[in-house]
Design a protein that fits this description.
Blueprint (H helix, E strand, L loop, with lengths): L9 E3 L2 E3 L6 E5 L7 H14 L3 E5 L3 H16 L6 E5 L3 H7 L1 H6 L2 E4 L9 H14 L4 E6 L5 H12 L7 H23 L6 E6 L3 H14 L5 E2 L5 E2 H17 L5 E2 L3 E2 L8 H12 L8 E4 L10 H23 L7 E5 L5 H7 L2 E4 L8 E6 L2 E7 L3 H23 L1
Parallel strand pairs: 3-4, 3-11, 4-5, 5-6, 6-7, 7-8, 9-11, 10-12, 13-14, 14-15
Antiparallel strand pairs: 1-2, 15-16, 16-17
Helix pairs in contact: 1-2, 3-5, 5-7, 6-7, 8-9, 9-10, 11-13
The structure holds iron/sulfur cluster.
Iron/sulfur cluster binds next to loops.
């Protein structure tokens, strides 16, 4: 993996982005922001899942009015996650008319292509003035789907006059970069400090996203927010986002990420947080949750017991993490192995901090457990899962509880 790209550090609430700080995972609500209770509930779920920044839509007066109440309710619940306001078209009006909303937010997200059909630059500058007034950073989020059409048309015209015109896609890429850089320069002319600006250039194609961020990384020092826009539903969205972000993160590009998954109706919004964390964890960039290594299973594992136990352990870890995170610092580095047979399983178990190998088909009903590479015990009987969970709890208390005391 390449060294992380150097960037200016930006503070969003108490969260540091860029400048050598770790890659931050963020998310966005899909509730009606005007519905305070619904939004508070979802922000809490996202924060509990580990989202370090949460963006909310601020699209009308009702939403702007609700923002300070959302913040207050969250703080009363001890959820101190920075909230980012997502503004389009009327952001200049809302931030001016609702100072309490401006104060409650930790960052404003501006899409320079969506700051109004007339007076676009003036509106952009008004938002920047509010950011300066309330000492907030901004994300200049250029999005290929809402690119400044006037700027694009100018670029296309100039390109047509060239002896060897570029393809329209290349011109669009150039325009995205120019739009971001031009907006950053304009914000700084208004008086916004350089360390108050984060940039994103979201695309919906994997290769396009890689190309644009590689170019962007080379021409600016701002921290970069990565994300594939309109990634899609389920497996498609997860795979596409992972493919794009893995390449960029591996090249040291990207200071904060969001996975824009389309949830199933009624689906769990926090899935986008877990996917983002898993991408960073799989790349060895940052650990968020104990890693459970489970073998894929094969002809030796005819029963579903082994899959059920792996799933149970994974679910238990996920459920406990909001509590463990606070009382057992470093627990996210734990490595657990759940293997399907005693032929090949013990080898992997020895590499884990704690690992179990379940009996495969026709094997003796015994499950050896390895702790720190040593065979500790062999579990038998009907309560193997429960006993292994208890061993895992004890291991966490002994190892990470002590760390807390020494801290
Ligand atoms: S560990 Fe055992 S059960 Fe799992 S895939 Fe390997 S051989 Fe099959």
């Amino acid at each position: 993996m390449q060294k992380r790209r150097e960037s200016i550090q930006v503070k969003v609430g108490d969260v540091l982005i860029g400048g050598g700080s770790h890659v931050v995972v963020q998310s966005m609500t899909n509730t009606d922001t005007a519905d305070v209770d619904d939004t508070v509930k979802q922000v809490t779920e996202l924060a509990d899942a580990g989202s370090e920044i949460v963006r909310i839509t601020v699209n009308n007066k009702q939403a702007a009015q609700a923002v300070p109440f959302i913040k207050e309710k969250l703080l009363r619940k001890n959820v101190d996650v920075p909230l980012v306001g997502d503004f389009h078209y009327n952001g200049h009006v809302l931030l001016t008319e609702f100072p309490d909303a401006a104060m409650a937010l930790s960052k404003f997200r501006i899409n320079p292509g969506n700051t109004g059909s007339r007076g676009r630059d003036k509106n952009f500058c008004t938002i920047v003035e509010q950011a300066i007034k309330y000492d907030k950073p901004v994300r200049i989020g250029v999005n290929w789907g809402s690119l400044d059409q006037q700027l694009l048309a100018e670029k296309m015209d100039k390109n047509n006059d060239l002896p060897e015109p570029k393809s329209s896609k290349e011109v669009m890429m150039d325009t995205i970069i120019d739009s971001a850089m031009r907006s950053s320069a304009m914000a700084q002319e208004v008086g916004l400090a350089e360390d108050k600006i984060i940039i994103s250039c979201k695309m919906s194609g994997v290769q396009d996203l890689i190309d644009i961020y590689q170019r962007m990384a080379a021409v600016c020092r701002h921290p970069l927010h990565l994300g594939l826009t309109e990634a899609g539903m389920g497996m498609k969205g997860i795979v596409a986002s992972s493919a794009a972000l893995a390449v960029l993160l591996n090249q040291g590009i990207g200071d904060t990420i969001r996975i824009s998954l389309t949830p199933q109706p009624g689906g769990d919004r926090a899935e986008e947080v877990r996917v983002g964390q898993q991408i960073l964890q799989s790349l060895g960039i940052r650990n968020f949750i104990p890693q459970v290594t489970a073998c894929p299973g094969c002809g030796r594992t005819k029963s579903t017991y082994f899959q059920e136990l792996a799933d149970e352990i994974q679910g238990y870890i996920r459920e406990m993490m909001p509590i463990w995170r606070d009382i057992y610092p470093g627990v996210e580095d734990l490595h657990v192995a759940v293997m399907g047979c005693v032929v090949n399983g013990p080898g992997e178990s020895k590499f884990a901090d704690i690992g179990i190998s379940l009996p495969g088909t026709f094997e003796e009903p015994k499950a050896p457990v390895y702790v720190d590479g040593e065979h500790r015990v062999t579990l038998t009987g009907d309560h193997i899962g429960k006993e292994f969970r208890k061993m895992m709890d004890d291991y966490i208390i002994n190892r990470f509880g002590r760390q807390k005391e020494s801290v």
